[in-house]
Write a structure and sequence with these properties.
Immunoglobulin-like; cell adhesion; 677 residues; Protocadherin gamma-C3; rod-shaped
């Protein structure tokens, strides 16, 4: 805490103090630390030059307007710097200057005094008011020279000085009916200032006894907020005169302020003083009431006394919570101990009832740290996660120590700002896709989907295709496939051909829009399903287009001799490659047969002389697909007598054909195994 003292009414820009020098730090460090000055009052009376560290006056300071009659006047500032956050309390004492002279309520006052007034009788004069304090305020009164009156100055507990004329020598109306006096009020400034009031005293005849109170002063004690009509005290004054001269009326003296007259009222007949306004300990702890008692004589005689009323405090003010600094947004990666708000608390009650304790719910990731009396800092206590809780309503509860305690709750809304701390996650670790070959270009094969719990830009996802490890280098997935960058739809660029590609795997990578971006991958398996798009191809016997293959047999061939074997292969797989052989047309359908699965062409009976010498056979090879595809081959069988070499050639050809069934069997078994897998 740093304290300065300056006189009031300084000009704008006047030097108050060098904060850099008094803190023992370099001006450059204060500039880098974002130096700020915060005032407890509504007006900014001071400013700081961050380049020099000098505190200057920025507005006119009138001590009387700020602090009234308080003997000491202070303005409090808070000096805040960042990196790290620190607060220093600055106390500036405003010193009074003698800028106000004492002033009487009027320039002239008239008094009417009976000639039989007792020596020592006192006659109050309305006091002069001086808003200055200390030695600069009203110090003394001076009465002009006269033969009958002396001046007595009555001092109140609050420092007020009330002049009274004291009768020192008996009056004689017949000798002098009027007395003209001058009362001068003077303060203690240097040089002193003063003002004057003219006093005209008229000496009256008759009523020669004034009322007398049974005690010079009265005392009472009340609790603040006492109900209206509460009795404060009952006055008692007597007058030994008889008749109207002894009939007393009570009233509040003109010395009392207008505010006091609104709080207390007196019954002129009984002298009872009762409460008629609000008693607030925080506004005044003691009231001093000036009361006068007047008789009904002519002229009226009066007597004055004081009633001192002490006010006892009760806990009637809830604590006040003032946000000195507060940020409603907070990054979710803020470290524990980050300052979110600086809170100032105060309670207008006194003693234990004015002490305030603050707390927040222990279920929240925030805590309060007491910096010094009446100031707390709201800090983060643990790590924050926006994806778990994105918004907090932090209730700061302030309670005093009264009985019963009063409290006030202030809600601080805090919104967490997202950071990119979550990588996207696919719905599946891998995807398996079955695609029929010859698929249309642009058809959607699969839609991969990922989610990111972050928000806004950090949750905007983008998909791309990558080659998977272990994939054939020649099978670049980007050649066959494309992916929509935002919705994850994988589409085909070209139709698949099962006969060329049966399986393809690749990675899909998703990345968010954060900085830096976070990524994740999933593996996609594409299985190509065969379609019946290939007709069987005849490998044996080979023949050109629109031509037939000739075979020669002996007329004496013995059935069921093998003539030849039709061998065909289908590039498809599974049922689409299961082949069957059918004899569709023949010169004599009963003479020859074709094995359904092996394609062997055999003679079924012995040749006769009536049989033709040449037979044309149309063999159709058909697969088992839906719909089935087929291929036809034409065989011409010639019946000829040949020598042994020719027959041996035929037998050799037949022998060569005899090995074909085994090959066909192996082929069928292989196709069945592949289809099963």
């Amino acid at each position: 805490q740093i304290r300065y003292s300056i006189p009031e009414e300084l000009t704008r820009g006047a030097f108050v103090g060098n904060i850099a020098k008094d803190l023992g730090t370099d001006v450059a460090k204060l500039t880098a630390a974002n130096l700020q000055v915060l005032s407890d009052s509504d007006s900014q009376y001071f400013s700081v030059n961050v380049n020099t560290g000098v505190i200057m006056v920025s507005e006119r300071i009138d001590r009387e307007q700020l602090c009234g009659q308080n003997p000491r006047c202070f303005l409090h500032l808070k000096l805040a710097i960042e990196n790290p956050v620190e607060f220093y309390r600055i106390e500036v004492e405003i010193l009074d200057i003698n800028d106000n002279p004492p002033e009487f309520p009027s320039d002239e006052v008239s008094l009417r005094i009976y000639e039989l007034a007792s020596l020592g009788a006192r006659f109050p004069i309305q006091p002069a008011q001086d808003p200055d304090v200390g030695t600069n305020t009203l110090q003394t009164y001076h009465l002009s020279a006269n033969d009958n009156f002396n001046l007595n100055v009555k001092a109140h507990t609050d420092g007020g000085k009330f002049p009274e004329l004291v009768l020192e020598r008996a009056l004689d109306r017949e000798f002098r009916a009027f007395h003209y006096l001058v009362l001068t009020a003077e303060d203690g400034g240097s040089p002193p200032q003063s003002s004057k009031i003219r006093i005209t005293i008229q000496v009256l005849d008759a009523n020669d006894n004034h009322p007398v109170f049974d005690r010079p002063s009265y005392g009472a004690r009340l609790v603040e907020n006492s109900p209206l009509g509460t009795l404060v005290v009952k006055l008692n004054a007597t007058d030994v005169d008889e008749g109207p001269n002894g009939d007393i009326r009570y009233s509040l003296s003109s010395h009392n302020s207008a505010a006091l007259r609104q709080i207390f009222a007196i019954n002129e007949q009984t002298g009872e003083i009762r409460v008629q306004g609000n008693l607030d300990f925080e506004e005044a702890t003691v009231y001093e009431i000036e009361v006068e008692a007047k008789d009904m004589g002519s002229p009226t005689m009066e007597e004055h006394c004081s009633v001192v009323v002490e006010i006892t405090d009760v806990n009637d003010n809830a604590p006040e919570v003032i946000l000195t600094s507060f940020s409603s947004t907070l990054s979710e990666d803020a470290l524990p101990g980050t300052v979110v708000a600086v809170i100032h608390v105060r309670d207008r009650d006194s003693g234990e009832q004015g002490k305030v304790l603050c707390h927040v719910s222990p279920d929240l990731p925030f805590q309060l740290r007491k910096d010094y009396e009446h100031q707390y800092s709201l800090l983060t206590s643990t790590r924050l996660d926006r994806e778990h809780v994105a918004y907090y309503n932090v209730t700061v509860s302030a309670s005093d120590l009264g009985h019963p305690p009063l409290s006030r709750h202030t809600i601080l809304p805090i919104t967490l700002i997202d950071v990119n701390d979550n990588a996207p996650q696919f719905e599946q670790a891998s995807y398996e896709v079955l695609v029929a070959e010859n698929n249309p270009v642009g058809s959607v094969l699969v839609t991969v989907s990922a989610a990111d719990p972050d928000s806004e830009q950090n949750s905007r996802l983008s998909y791309s295709i990558l080659r998977a490890g272990g994939t054939d280098p020649g099978l670049d997935p980007t050649r066959y496939l494309s992916i929509h960058p935002t919705n994850g739809q994988v589409t085909a660029k070209f139709p698949f051909d099962y006969e060329q590609t049966t399986y393809l795997q690749f990675h899909v990578e998703v990345s968010d829009g954060g900085s830096p971006a976070l990524r994740n991958r999933t593996l996609v398996h594409v299985f190509v399903v065969d379609q019946n798009d290939n007709a069987p191809r005849v490998h044996f016997p080979r023949a050109g287009e629109d031509s037939a293959t000739q075979f020669r047999i002996s007329p004496s061939i013995v059935p069921p001799a093998l003539i030849t074997k039709v061998v065909a292969i289908d590039a498809d797989s599974g049922r689409n490659a299961w082949l069957s052989y059918h004899l569709v047309e023949a010169t004599d359908l009963g003479l020859f047969s074709v094995a359904l699965r092996s394609g062997e062409v055999r003679i079924m009976r012995a040749l006769q002389d009536t049989d033709a010498s040449a037979h044309e056979l149309l063999v159709v090879v058909r697969d088992a697909g839906e719909p089935p595809l087929s291929t036809a081959v034409t065989l011409v069988v010639l019946v000829e007598e040949k020598g042994p070499e020719a027959l041996q050639g035929s037998e050799a050809r037949a022998a060569d054909g005899g090995a074909l069934p085994t090959i066909t069997l192996y082929l069928i078994v292989s196709l069945v195994l592949i289809s099963t897998v």
